[in-house]
Amino acid sequence: MAEAQPPTIIEGAASGDVEDEVPVAKSAEDRKAAAALSSLDAPREDEPSSVNIDAEAVRKAMDRLAGTGVTNGTVAKKDDEKKTIKKVVKVDQADVALLIEELDLSKIKATDLLRSHDGDAMKALKAFITPIA
Question: What pTM did the predictor assign?
Protein backbone atom coordinates (compact mmCIF):
# COMPACT_ATOMS: atom_id res chain seq x y z
CA MET A 1 0.00 0.00 0.00
CA ALA A 2 1.33 3.48 -0.87
CA GLU A 3 2.10 6.16 1.70
CA ALA A 4 -0.11 9.20 2.01
CA GLN A 5 1.21 12.18 0.01
CA PRO A 6 1.47 15.72 1.40
CA PRO A 7 -1.36 18.05 0.32
CA THR A 8 0.95 20.07 -1.96
CA ILE A 9 1.71 17.02 -4.12
CA ILE A 10 -0.76 16.25 -6.89
CA GLU A 11 -0.80 12.81 -8.46
CA GLY A 12 0.22 12.80 -12.07
CA ALA A 13 1.93 16.22 -12.02
CA ALA A 14 4.59 16.14 -14.71
CA SER A 15 6.69 19.22 -13.97
CA GLY A 16 8.59 20.11 -10.81
CA ASP A 17 7.24 23.69 -10.63
CA VAL A 18 5.23 24.40 -7.52
CA GLU A 19 2.97 26.79 -9.43
CA ASP A 20 1.94 23.96 -11.76
CA GLU A 21 1.18 21.68 -8.84
CA VAL A 22 -0.98 24.08 -6.82
CA PRO A 23 -4.63 23.66 -7.70
CA VAL A 24 -6.55 26.66 -9.10
CA ALA A 25 -8.83 28.44 -6.63
CA LYS A 26 -12.39 27.30 -7.10
CA SER A 27 -14.47 30.08 -5.56
CA ALA A 28 -14.48 33.76 -6.49
CA GLU A 29 -13.33 34.68 -3.00
CA ASP A 30 -10.33 32.33 -3.26
CA ARG A 31 -9.42 33.80 -6.66
CA LYS A 32 -9.57 37.34 -5.22
CA ALA A 33 -7.32 36.35 -2.34
CA ALA A 34 -4.87 34.67 -4.69
CA ALA A 35 -4.80 37.77 -6.94
CA ALA A 36 -4.20 40.02 -3.93
CA LEU A 37 -1.33 37.84 -2.72
CA SER A 38 0.30 37.72 -6.14
CA SER A 39 0.06 41.52 -6.47
CA LEU A 40 2.13 41.89 -3.29
CA ASP A 41 5.09 40.28 -5.01
CA ALA A 42 4.85 42.28 -8.24
CA PRO A 43 6.85 45.55 -8.38
CA ARG A 44 4.72 48.66 -8.65
CA GLU A 45 5.62 51.34 -11.16
CA ASP A 46 3.94 54.24 -9.33
CA GLU A 47 6.10 53.84 -6.22
CA PRO A 48 9.69 55.11 -6.18
CA SER A 49 12.18 52.31 -6.20
CA SER A 50 14.46 51.70 -3.25
CA VAL A 51 17.49 52.03 -5.53
CA ASN A 52 17.51 55.83 -5.14
CA ILE A 53 19.33 55.84 -1.79
CA ASP A 54 21.68 58.56 -0.67
CA ALA A 55 24.94 56.62 -0.41
CA GLU A 56 26.61 59.30 1.71
CA ALA A 57 23.79 59.23 4.27
CA VAL A 58 23.98 55.45 4.45
CA ARG A 59 27.76 55.57 4.95
CA LYS A 60 27.42 58.11 7.76
CA ALA A 61 24.72 56.07 9.46
CA MET A 62 26.81 52.91 9.24
CA ASP A 63 29.84 54.75 10.66
CA ARG A 64 27.77 55.95 13.60
CA LEU A 65 26.52 52.42 14.22
CA ALA A 66 30.02 50.99 13.95
CA GLY A 67 31.21 53.28 16.71
CA THR A 68 33.69 55.35 14.78
CA GLY A 69 33.57 58.97 15.83
CA VAL A 70 31.67 61.16 13.39
CA THR A 71 31.89 64.86 14.08
CA ASN A 72 30.37 67.42 11.72
CA GLY A 73 30.34 64.96 8.83
CA THR A 74 34.02 64.03 9.14
CA VAL A 75 35.09 60.67 10.42
CA ALA A 76 37.68 60.65 13.17
CA LYS A 77 40.22 57.87 12.86
CA LYS A 78 40.55 55.37 15.66
CA ASP A 79 44.25 56.17 15.98
CA ASP A 80 43.38 59.75 16.90
CA GLU A 81 41.09 58.56 19.68
CA LYS A 82 43.74 56.33 21.20
CA LYS A 83 46.38 59.06 21.37
CA THR A 84 45.61 60.28 24.84
CA ILE A 85 48.52 61.37 26.93
CA LYS A 86 48.72 59.40 30.16
CA LYS A 87 50.44 60.77 33.20
CA VAL A 88 53.27 58.73 34.55
CA VAL A 89 52.14 57.93 38.08
CA LYS A 90 54.00 55.52 40.28
CA VAL A 91 51.60 53.42 42.31
CA ASP A 92 52.36 51.61 45.52
CA GLN A 93 51.92 47.83 45.33
CA ALA A 94 50.29 47.86 48.76
CA ASP A 95 47.59 50.18 47.38
CA VAL A 96 47.11 47.87 44.39
CA ALA A 97 46.75 44.92 46.76
CA LEU A 98 44.23 46.89 48.85
CA LEU A 99 42.05 47.62 45.79
CA ILE A 100 42.31 44.01 44.63
CA GLU A 101 41.23 42.75 48.03
CA GLU A 102 38.49 45.26 48.81
CA LEU A 103 36.98 45.82 45.36
CA ASP A 104 37.64 42.40 43.79
CA LEU A 105 39.42 43.97 40.83
CA SER A 106 42.10 42.51 38.63
CA LYS A 107 45.63 43.81 39.11
CA ILE A 108 45.52 45.71 35.82
CA LYS A 109 42.21 47.41 36.61
CA ALA A 110 43.31 48.28 40.13
CA THR A 111 46.54 49.79 38.78
CA ASP A 112 44.65 51.80 36.15
CA LEU A 113 42.19 53.04 38.78
CA LEU A 114 45.05 54.19 41.00
CA ARG A 115 46.84 55.89 38.09
CA SER A 116 43.69 57.76 37.13
CA HIS A 117 43.50 59.10 40.71
CA ASP A 118 47.19 60.06 41.02
CA GLY A 119 48.06 57.01 43.12
CA ASP A 120 45.72 58.00 45.99
CA ALA A 121 44.01 54.84 47.25
CA MET A 122 41.26 56.70 49.13
CA LYS A 123 40.28 58.76 46.05
CA ALA A 124 40.29 55.60 43.94
CA LEU A 125 38.09 53.73 46.42
CA LYS A 126 35.62 56.60 46.67
CA ALA A 127 35.50 57.06 42.91
CA PHE A 128 34.87 53.37 42.35
CA ILE A 129 31.96 53.11 44.78
CA THR A 130 30.38 56.48 43.91
CA PRO A 131 27.62 56.06 41.31
CA ILE A 132 27.95 58.10 38.15
CA ALA A 133 25.09 60.56 37.80
Answer: 0.37
